[in-house]
Amino acid sequence: MHLKQYYLGCLAHASYMIGCDKSKTAIVIDPQRDIAQYITDADAAGFTIKHVFLSHFHADFVAGHLELRKKTKATIHLGAQAQAEFEFEAMADGSTLELETVKLEILETPGHTPEGISIVVYDLEHDADTPKAVLTGDTLFIGDVGRPDLMASIGVTAEELAGSLYDSLHNKLLTLPDATLLYPAHGAGSMCGKNLSSDTVSTIGAQRANNYALQSMSKEEFIAIVTANQPVAPNYFSYDAMLNRKEHTTLSDSMANLKPLDLKTVLSLVDEKEAQLVDARLPSDYADAHMNKSLSVELEGKFATWAGTFLDPLKPIVIIADAGTEVEAGLRLGRIGFDLVAGYLEGGMRALAEAPEFVGNFERLSSGELERRISESKAPLVVDVRTPGEYASGHIPGAINIPLNAIRERAGELPHDQEVVATCRTGSRSCTAVSILRMQGFTNVGDQRGGFVNWNNGSRAIEKCESTCGS
């Protein structure tokens, strides 16, 4: 038996391939949408991918089940409670898939979603009776459990799902031996939980001992804990959760539309099709010169998360990026189902060299300059766009907190007749905030270079809140 984990850091997503040497069959679990690595590894081992499992309908990315079906004719397997437009094999609690050296046993583990399953893996050549591993999807993470609120809009409440999650954990997963290896679908950085570890593998025993949500408590106490203080889900989560149920365009077909566009075509798309401009360059480059009405989301940061928060998946998108990074930006949008990418601005910002009327810029203040301006009579309003928890742990004195995911809706709270300076942890989210405020008509707005990390490294004054501050 072969079991390999594939970890995609930009989405904090883990997928898996299990192979059987004797039958030369491979199974892929929770695949990302770009499937080349699974095909390459299967071919190298002489395996044929015949099965693909989804532990549930993921909300934070579009899975690659349709891509694998198209490429390999693999059978798609879902939990018995799943409803989908495409043909699949429903896997009920206790059902199995057995190859010559591998057996998979399905546990229905609702809670994060109603249709969620976990997959218990047996290595039949070594111990046919004791599970080797369990793939828990978003039901049980390392250090946390799946949040129960994402699917609360489909007719079941977060509290009801949390109750199901408690039962799934205690009646199913925690009955497995302590030595069972635990492989989740996400790690630290995912918004599918609130306390995920950066580790990518653990054991049932380690989680039984150390996971806060698995400690001794009543069902009512568990429901209260896991429904509290969950991060705000990006806007695209509900879109992706529904898209994963549907027949839809495959990534290869979507990426085939990614092409260079001249400036005239881009301007026409903006005027006639309400095309959205997303600039994937570094914040420093964006501040120096950017195309007006463009959204700044740094490619090397949480590009998919923030692009998915602020872009509309049903409107065309044009990418502005450094040469050679345009395809990567398009791929990251494709991974979250944003398939209406019309192309990218040919030549990047060089295309605007003779069109300065379409170019904007703004000031990035050093921590020292910001400190000096705060002390003046006409001090700027400092807006900290980090999460409430980050803000509470330490912030620039006098700064107000409007988390980035709320900046568009709460822009009306900010003055147009006073300088506004956005700040975050390192200067990436603040640049995104400035781009949004500029699109909403703010002209006297900039951000702090280096963010709170830079401010704090200079031993400058900070404020803290005794508990999470209101925002």
Summarize the structure in short:
The protein is of the alpha/beta class. It is built from 15 helices and 24 strands.
CATH class group of the largest domain: Alpha Beta
Largest sheet: 6 strands, mixed
CATH superfamily caption of the largest domain: Ribonuclease Z/Hydroxyacylglutathione hydrolase-like
The CATH topology of the largest domain:
Metallo-beta-lactamase, Chain A
Supply the helix-strand structural class.
alpha/beta
Poorly predicted regions: none
Q: How far do the termini sit from each other?
A: 51 Å
The helix count comes to 15
Cross-sheet strand order for the largest sheet: 1-2-3-4-5-6
Describe the fold and architecture.
The chain is an alpha/beta fold and 471 residues long. The protein has three domains: 2-240, Ribonuclease Z/Hydroxyacylglutathione hydrolase-like (Metallo-beta-lactamase, Chain A, 4-Layer Sandwich), CATH 3.60.15.10; 249-360, Rhodanese-like domain (Oxidized Rhodanese, domain 1); 364-457, Oxidized Rhodanese, domain 1 (3-Layer(aba) Sandwich). The protein is built from 15 helices and 24 strands. The chain has helices at residues 36-45, 65-72, 158-171, 204-210, 219-227, 236-243, 251-255, 263-273, 283-288, 303-310, 326-335, 367-374, 388-393, 429-439, 451-457; strands at residues 2-8, 13-20, 25-29, 48-53, 75-79, 89-91, 96-98, 102-108, 117-123, 133-137, 181-184, 202-203, 260-261, 276-279, 290-291, 294-296, 317-320, 341-345, 359-360, 364-365, 381-384, 400-401, 420-423, 445-448. Helix 3 (158-171) packs across helix 5 and helix 10 (303-310) packs across helix 11. The longest helix is centred in the middle third of the chain and has 14 residues, at 158-171. The model has no long low-confidence stretch (mean pLDDT 95).
